[in-house]
Design brief:
The chain has 220 residues and is an alpha/beta fold. The chain is 27% helix and 30% strand. The strands form 2 sheets. It has an 8-stranded mixed sheet with strand order 6-7-5-4-8-9-11-10, with helices on both faces. A 3-stranded antiparallel sheet has the order 1-2-3, with no helix packed on it. The longest helix has 12 residues.
Amino acid sequence: MKREILTTNDGSTTIHLPDWNESYHSKHGAIQEAYHVFFKNGLSLFDNKPVSILEIGFGTGLNAFITFIEAKKENQKIDYVGVEAYPVLLDEALQMNYVNELNATNENEVFTKFHQCSWNEKHTISNDFLLTKRQQLFQDISDVDTFDLIYFDAFGFRVQPELWSIEIFKKMHTALKLNGVIVTYACRSSIKKAMLECEFTVEKLPGAPGKREMLRATKK
């Protein structure tokens, strides 16, 4: 499928799929969406405690990179697992301008390592950050009581409704520890209903710029 590099409204880049008219991040701002959904309403809940994270859709590595940057400020220990069925090519990833836009030129080597390191193996990025990239269909996830936090960043319901199904959210519920949290940019009523069917406690929150609402759900 054809892929193009686009610049979003906050100056950060994303990958666009013209055949689907779908992008890896919000066109309103890739970095600002990632911070709002996954950091502000996800990671920040854990008060600098060690956190095991599952990302559904590793993509360009933006969410993982922001997590690394923010956790490093507090010496927070992160065990990060990013699942991606169709990995972004290295040359595409290195065209992303996140290092500069995040004023993180001293971490350029880390961002490159995220994309150069092998798949399906655990890598020590720093003393406090472990990364495992799993090339895997979301339907094949089988983790049990493993994660504190899930970043659910799949392509939108419009193009891949099967990724927002009861079947998938049951897997997410099983993968989370008790009181674990899942956050996503989406807020479609059918998605909320699927989460509720899987016994999540679900709340609507203000969305990132350009989006009215988002969802956060907790395994109780």
